[in-house]
Amino acid sequence: MNSAGRDRLALLRRTADAVQAALAAFDRWSVGGDRPDQYALDQVADAAALGVLDAAGVGVLSEESGLRAGSSGETVIVDPVDGSTNASRRIPHYCISLCAVDGLAPVAGLVRHLVSGEEFTAVAGGGAHLDGRPIRPSGRTSGERAVIGVSGRPGAELPVWQVRVLGSAALDLCAVACGRLDAYLDLNSNHGVWDYAAGILICSEAGAWTGEAGGRELFHLSHSERRGPVAASTPELAALLGHARRPGSGSGGGR
């Protein structure tokens, strides 16, 4: 990893550390935030993340506080707590998701499980890692024994063995990257870029196929736009799920 990659990951780690510290003393887990779709925990985590990122001079696109310009030319896409409904109900499956982009090109990503402490990372061109160890997807090409994660309610039976609805897109994508899940798809195309940016980079760098349900570009800096991220261990499995126009299509180029 080059020095720029190390510096970007160091900034993302400092941000995750700040969020983890802010939530360590938090005790209002079920309290709502200022918006109907927000919890107080989201706002506390967002304030902690912004404290680090603003000081570093980077731009920020956060689910909770929107887009703010920086002076460095790079932007960090932030979901302070992905899986905040899980967190509000004390279901121990939620994370912070951070992705640094140069323009619209993802350059570094970090997803940290805020209960177990597991940390998934990737730098563009440098592979993907779990707690410093290289990871790769399962390589499954058929649905016969495939276990996949989804967002939304399946309207029809999917051509796979089992389905999981776990409540954190970022962690589900990382599970594809390390082979715990064979694929992930958003059935309703309702994700903001903060939900999946780091996870998609980590999947791609691990060697998984990544794309978007409608064939659109996944990376953008709009707070209002929504996408349908898809990741699968192989192009063949992605095509089976019906979310690839052809094997290898979509962002990630079939990686």
Outline the secondary-structure elements.
Blueprint: H1 3-24, H2 40-56, E1 59-62, E2 66-68, E3 74-82, H3 84-88, E4 95-102, E5 105-113, E6 119-123, E7 128-130, E8 133-134, E9 147-151, E10 162-164, H4 169-177, E11 183-186, H5 193-206, E12 209-212, E13 229-232, H6 235-240
Parallel strand pairs: 1-3, 9-10, 9-11
Antiparallel strand pairs: 1-2, 3-4, 4-5, 5-6, 6-7, 7-8, 11-13, 12-13
User: Which class of secondary structure composition applies to the elements?
Assistant: alpha+beta
Give the fraction of residues assigned to helices.
25-40%
User: CA-to-CA gap between the ends?
Assistant: 19 Å
The share of residues in extended strands comes to: 15-25%
Concise structural overview:
With 255 residues, the chain is an alpha+beta fold. Helices cover 29% and strands 25% of the residues. The two termini are 19 Å apart.
